[in-house]
């Protein structure tokens, strides 16, 4: 009968002789502590902390060595406080890989007399949850709504300055080019309108004076012949 009870207790992930939180939460980079409380009859036994599954049972991830003595392995430490009937497990510098199921237990296997020595260790299961970070947790706890703003385009000062300079240069160069263009138009007007007019007037004058010159030549020739 006792053997049947022992097998049933082995399948139960908790024990009435050991109590503690079923779930603990911490942020990446932070530390968290788990306090496991036990009955006075287990004050002289070693306590341990391991990640599930903890098989074989005698292989502990981390185990106490005495009262008020901190045992540390990497980022995990465990300390037994017999006067408070509790032991504390601390995980430092949490990472996402630390999330999972752990066992908080008392090492009683094969230490009690009789058939009770084959009973499984009293333990309970702890679920460790590791969140992304404090900022995201703070935002979720406040319940703030996300406000979407329209995109704003930023123009670097250098581009703005060059744009203003280029616009100034363009306007200045246009104003400077307008003068030569007007002068060229006036010159072309003189060439195509005034010059032909002057040439026409000069041709008319020459045409008028040409008959007079011919008659004068004939008079001189007749006078020369008469002499």
Concise description?
The protein has 227 residues and is an alpha+beta fold.
Which SSEs are present, and which pair or pack?
Elements: H1 2-11, E1 18-19, E2 23-27, E3 32-38, E4 46-51, E5 62-63, E6 71-73, E7 76-81, E8 86-91, E9 100-107, E10 123-131, H2 134-142, H3 157-226
Parallel strand pairs: 2-10
Antiparallel strand pairs: 1-3, 3-8, 4-5, 4-9, 6-7, 7-8, 9-10
Shape annotation: rod-shaped
Number of strands: 10
Strand order of the largest sheet: 1-3-8-7-6
Tally of alpha and pi helices: 3
CATH architecture of the largest domain: Sandwich
Averaging pLDDT over every residue, what do you get?
72
- The overall number of domains is 2
Report on the biggest sheet: 5 strands, antiparallel
H-E string: HEEEEEEEEEEHH
> Would you identify the CATH H-level superfamily of the largest domain?
Immunoglobulins
Binned strand content: 15-25%
Q: Helices and strands: which structural class?
A: alpha+beta
Quote the CATH topology of the largest domain.
Immunoglobulin-like
Provide an overview of this structure:
The chain is built from three helices and ten strands, in the order αββββββββββαα. The strands form two sheets. Strands 1-3-8-7-6 form a five-stranded antiparallel sheet, with no helix packed on it. Strands 2-10-9-4-5 form a five-stranded mixed sheet, with no helix packed on it. The protein folds into two domains: 2-132, Immunoglobulin-like (Sandwich), CATH 2.60.40.10; 186-213. A hairpin with a 4-residue loop joins strand 7 (76-81) and strand 8 (86-91). The termini are far apart. The chain is an alpha+beta fold and 227 residues long. It is rod-shaped and about 175 Å long. The chain has helices at 2-11, 134-142, 157-226, and strands at 18-19, 23-27, 32-38, 46-51, 62-63, 71-73, 76-81, 86-91, 100-107, 123-131. 11% of the residues are buried. Mean pLDDT is 72; it is low at 1-14, 112-117, 141-149 and 159-163. Residues 1-17 form the signal peptide.
């Amino acid at each position: 009968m006792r053997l049947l009870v022992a097998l049933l207790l082995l399948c139960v992930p908790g024990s009435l002789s050991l109590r503690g939180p079923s779930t603990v939460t911490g942020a990446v980079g932070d530390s968290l502590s788990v306090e496991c409380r036990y009955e006075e009859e287990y004050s002289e036994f070693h306590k341990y902390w391991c990640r599930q599954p903890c098989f074989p049972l005698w292989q502990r991830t981390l185990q106490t060595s005495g009262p008020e003595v901190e045992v540390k392995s990497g980022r995990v430490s465990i300390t037994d406080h017999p006067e408070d009937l509790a032991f504390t497990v601390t995980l430092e510098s949490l990472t996402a890989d630390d999330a999972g199921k752990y066992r908080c237990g008392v090492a009683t296997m094969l230490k009690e007399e009789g058939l009770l020595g084959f009973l499984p260790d009293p333990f309970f299961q702890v679920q460790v949850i590791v969140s992304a970070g404090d900022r995201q947790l703070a935002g979720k706890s406040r319940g703030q709504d996300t406000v979407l703003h329209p995109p704003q385009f930023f123009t670097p000062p250098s581009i703005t300055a060059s744009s203003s300079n280029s616009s100034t240069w363009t306007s200045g160069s246009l104003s400077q080019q307008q003068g030569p263009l007007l002068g060229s138009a006036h010159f072309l007007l003189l060439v195509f309108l005034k010059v032909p007019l002057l040439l026409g007037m000069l041709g008319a004058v020459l045409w008028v004076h040409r008959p007079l010159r011919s008659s004068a030549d004939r008079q001189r020739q007749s006078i020369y012949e008469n002499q």
